[in-house]
Amino acid sequence: MTLNNILAEIPDSTLPVSPTPSGRQSPSRRETILSLVEMLLQESDVQRINIPQQPSFEDDGDIPSVDEYHQAEGAEAFRKFERSINNLDKELRNFSNAARQLGSSVAILSSAYRLRERLAQIHYLYQENAANIFPRKITHISRESISEFHAPERRPRRGRRRRRKAPLHVPRPAVTEQLDPECFPEQLEALAREVTTFLDTLNEFPEFTDEVVNASILSFEGDLKYWSSCLKEYVGQFRHPAVQRYIHDLTDEMGEHIDGITSSLCMFIDVGVPAIRFAQEHAANNLLNLSTVATFFSAVTATTMQFSYQLDHDAVSDAVNTMWFASMVFSIAAAVNSLLGLTWKQAMYRSPGNRVPWWVLIWIKRSPLVFLVLSVACFSIGLCCFTYASHQSFVTTTLTTVLTTFTSFGLAAVSAWFASERWTYARHRGQKWLSDVLIESIEQFIQTPVLCWIRTVVKFLGRNIEKTWAALLSLYEWLRNLCSSSELDNEGDDLEASGVPTTSGSGPSHRPSHLESSNPVKLGMSSVTLPVLTESPKPAHVVPPSALVNSPTEKETPLPEASPISPGRQLWLKAFQNVRMRNSMAALASTSGNTAQPDRRRTTSSGLPGPYDRKRAIIEPVTVLKSRISTLVPKLAALEATQDLAAHNALVRHLQFSPDGRFLATSSWDKTSIIFRVGDPFISHRTLAHTQGFVGQVAWSPTGNLLLTKMARGINVWTEGGVCAKTIDRDAAVETVCWFPGGEAFLSVEESIVTKLDINGNELDHYDFGRLKIHDVAITPDSLRVLGVGPLLESPTGLHPIKSRVENRLVVYNMETKMIENQTPVLNAVRDITIGQTPGGGLIVLIGSENKGPPQLWRLELVKDRGNKSVTARLTLRHTYMPKIPIDFSGRSYFGGKNNELVLCAGKAGDIHIWDQESGALLHVIRAQAHSGDLTCIAWNHAADNPYMFATGSHDGGVRVWTKIPEEPPFTDPTFELDTNADVRSQSLYKFPRSSSPLPQDDTHGESLHSSSLEANGGFAK
């Protein structure tokens, strides 16, 4: 019996599905079995696919080849992207199952399924693309297996046909149409539309809004549109390896977006769906309560109508029947409309609120409550009229009318308050309450001109009345004092007789104490504090004589002393004196020729042992290209910092050896460039001073007789003797300069425009690169093409990325036709480009990137078109040079060795990595000292082959020369050697007080290269 037959025997009634509190549906046993079988089929299919794909190694089974490393890393990146898509598909399926219980969920269910279909198509295209790049790790999708795996299961027909419910377990949508790699831009754009549609349908639930989901989906949509717009420029090239690799590199960026949406969607399922369901159930309960009340009230109205329909036909009786019949009609309408609204809100296929006509929405939401209020009002009026029509007593009719009026007034007031709250919410969207609106309205009413005038009049009258009352009180006090003066005299005599002390002063002796305190101006404001006679038992306060003498109100006061300097001013004066002292000491030190050694940081070679263990180092060659690499490794291991030159006072920005190797030019942020004469030791040849700003680059001409120095907005042309032949000012910022192979002209890179200039500063031509901002250029040996690298300023449709990295491009520009012959997209931030030649005459291009982007080697190929016989250039990736561990690169890469056989690149930590250019094996690593690295630039001396030589610049302005330490000469007379070299060394120390002899290498800081094969295992080129 097959699996389908076994599953078919399981009835649906025995498989209940109950929603969980989190909004998810717990799967039934049948769904669990289906999921397990699906996973087993996938695992068996993967095992069947991976059986013949055994790892292939070259020459040695223990050391994987460069290509094997490249295949494994690319396959792992694709599998990570595949897991991200599978997780998102799973969450979309869970979301669909949870959203089925919500009203108006048909739109979100449809958009979720369409999004899953689009994800399946994207997955198919990316798997086909990865299978083309990594054929030994990723296989192509078999369309027969897809159709068999995703075929809907069929149940055997039974005698009685019954309706089947839609199963909650929905398989992943299958790709049924043939997708071509050229449709990548269209598919990405379609995915952006599906994602936007899903977000719109999700936001149509007004009960809950998740800002996290909105932000993640909107950023994903923006990047998808940016990628689609950029990829449209590569139509017809999606089968080229370079474009395929760029599309594969996008999986990292896209995977981050998908993972963010997956986590946000998972949270929305756990939090948002229950909140939406609670809000919808709350609204449904309100309608259900209204329906219940309306039904009950209609029964009450029908019962009371039995007492009134047989009354005599007069005006009051007719009014009673009219009101009660109207009340019954309104109550029935309220009940029916409540049930209608309840059914509409619970329907999954109903339209969202923003797509329903306003009058339909108002009728469904507001009519039940309005009809119920009208029914109650009509019944109350009819009840009052019934008391008069049935000839009740005066007390009954009066009391019924009063109570009905009171309850109706309360009902009207509450209804008005409720309507006002609704208006406030519609007007201010929850930012203000109704009480705040009422307070603001009252304040605005008070500020009207009429009320302001009335308030001014009242204040004026109030002030005048207060003054009048004060005058009357003063008059009363004066009359009172006048009448009681005799009594006060008698009381004073009695007090003196009884021995009670009295007040003494310059004023009247018998003035009342309360008058003295109330009018101190009239009392003369005496500086002497007088004891006051009061009824309190506390003793009088007597001021000591010292206070009387030193009173500040006396006429004789001491002269004011000079005010002291404030603490803040003292700090400023001290800081100013310190700055002046430091400046004077610096000037004194510069004029006195101080030869003190600066505190400098050194780097040590990782591949070279200490001076005592150098002979014990065992160098094993790499298995690939054994004879050549076995020669390179010892030469690289022998490199040490032999000279440490204190060239500049600020960061060294760029270095370059002259083509003949006789000179080394440096540039620094201290506004100087120095030309050194290469030798042992290096001697300063010329110092080139600049007044316009920092010197960012130096460039020797191919002939070696001219030197260019680049500033921010200018270029200086110098001769070999240090004479400034020409100063060329530019209107735009200059990124870099590059000589033509013949040395007759050079290129100045300025944003997207590359200008051809001669040595006199005349503009010979312009080359526009469009939307590409050029960082660096290189010219082919035939001077026909220029290669440029840089980021894209904007997409062809004017879009910018939101979260992903900006697209960078390698461009081949034909200077004769002034057309871009080839452009290759790359994701890493490329900063420099260098052209070199192989021993066979081929052209290779070295690209350097920033951050995590390793250097890459490309081959420049000339392809002849079969149609018009024209020759165009095309770039093909050969190697990606990988370090042993992921590091941040400083950005610039260099060729080294004979015939460009080496590739050098420095990390931001100061380590220098050296690879074999042809095989891509990591040969040597020069480690920075333990505390930090201060490396800024490298320059290789191509004229020095045995031994190798290169120079490095640092942040502190120092320049280090790396080469092999010369062997110790035979014993000679030290006095003679000292006399012959005294002049040279004194000259070096005089011109460079900060320079020092090479420091001995410490064996504890070195890292010996015990096995070159281990270095090769740690870092391979892709």
TrEMBL record:
Keyword NADP among UniProt keywords: no
Membrane-spanning intervals of the chain: 287-311, 323-344, 369-389
InterPro entries listed in its UniProt record: WD40/YVTN_repeat-like_dom_sf, WD40_repeat_dom_sf, WD40_rpt, WD_repeat-ST_regulator
Highest rank taxon of the organism: Eukaryota
Biased composition (Polar residues): 15-26, 989-999
Location of the region described as Disordered in the Swiss-Prot/TrEMBL record: 9-29, 145-168, 490-521, 539-564, 589-612, 989-1022
Xref: SMART domains: WD40
Sequence ranges of Basic residues compositional bias: 155-167
Pfam families reported for this sequence: WD40
Biased composition (Basic and acidic residues): 145-154
WD repeats: 645-678, 928-962
Keywords for the protein's UniProt record, in alphabetical order: Membrane, Repeat, Transmembrane, Transmembrane helix, WD repeat
Annotated Low complexity bias: 498-509
Name used for this protein in its record: WD40 repeat-like protein
